[in-house]
Amino acid sequence: MSTKQQFVPGLEGVIAAETAISFLDTEQEKIIIRGHDLIDLSKSNDYIDVAHLLLDERLPNDSEKSALEEKLKKNYDIPFYVMEILSLLPETTHPMDGMRTGLSALSGNDKDIDSRSTEANKTRAYELLGKLPAITVNSYRLIKGKKAVEPDPSLSYSANFLYMITEKKPEPFEAKIFDRSLLLYSEHEMPNSTFTARVIASTNSDIYGALTGGVASLKGNLHGGANEAVMYMLNAVKSAGEFEELIQKKLINKEKIMGFGHRVYMKKMDPRALEMKASLKQLCDKKGDHSLLEMCEAGEKVMREEKGLYPNLDYYAAPVYWMLGIPIELYTPIFFSARTAGLAAHVMEQHNNNRIFRPRVNYIGESY
Predict the structure, then answer these.
(1) Is 31 helix (H, G, I), strand (E, B) or coil?
(2) Is 289 a catalytic residue?
(3) Which CATH number is 30-220+330-352 given?
């Protein structure tokens, strides 16, 4: 019999790739994106700045940023056949499945699909960034039997995305907060969806297949969906005291509390959550209603004292999205749409320095 190798469940802590894209520096409590601190970027840059950083490996200057904004707007439209496919999906289709179907169907429109060059992949990545807001929103709307919403190219990228969701032009501060959430979701080293995309890309599969696999991975409630679960919890009660009681009850029943804990941030709060908490306060201040902030802070206190767990990004993104008027079912699809920039960067990096993933196992079956 062969000698057993060390087995690490979930590959926790196992180095699976070398990358120049991002790194979670837990010692310095920083999320590094191509040499930049993501939190610093969120204070002074927009989502498309970070998309350019991820895909072109540097922050854009003013003219490059304007050109990128125009490039994205030219790619807003969705092919007719994709919209037809989405309109045929049954009403019971999960929004992530609608997005996955639309994303996969776009591959049929790529006349150069067999090319894995950096330029071809970068072109696809920016085209997908342009189209994914409409795919995200209209796959959901068509599944629900509603009419599709047309993009508004007079608005910025993130403002248009939020407009398509709510069907009303957002206030500048609302568009800024939504943009900040997209930026914070844009890239996060090697979570399951990124690993999935890289594994698929390592077979020399195209970017559509890799990102479609990423959607499937993010649909799983142990990866995506936490932001939705948090909002359902918050909506189940009416006050901070009731929310605290709800969490205490769930802890007694040994239920998993979504929005807390992270495989990497074990003993501290996700720095992205701190930014979204500040955004929630800003929204509460503007609207003159601090009930959601008070509820979240009560839940945060209970989980810290009872379990030593801290909020992750999803915990505070949920009430932010709720106050922006975003349907709960779209929270995870928005997460994926934002993460597309990071995923595409990882697919490009994998294609450019590839070795197919092919791990081994420890056999624990019958003796032979």
Answers:
(1) strand
(2) no
(3) 1.10.580.10
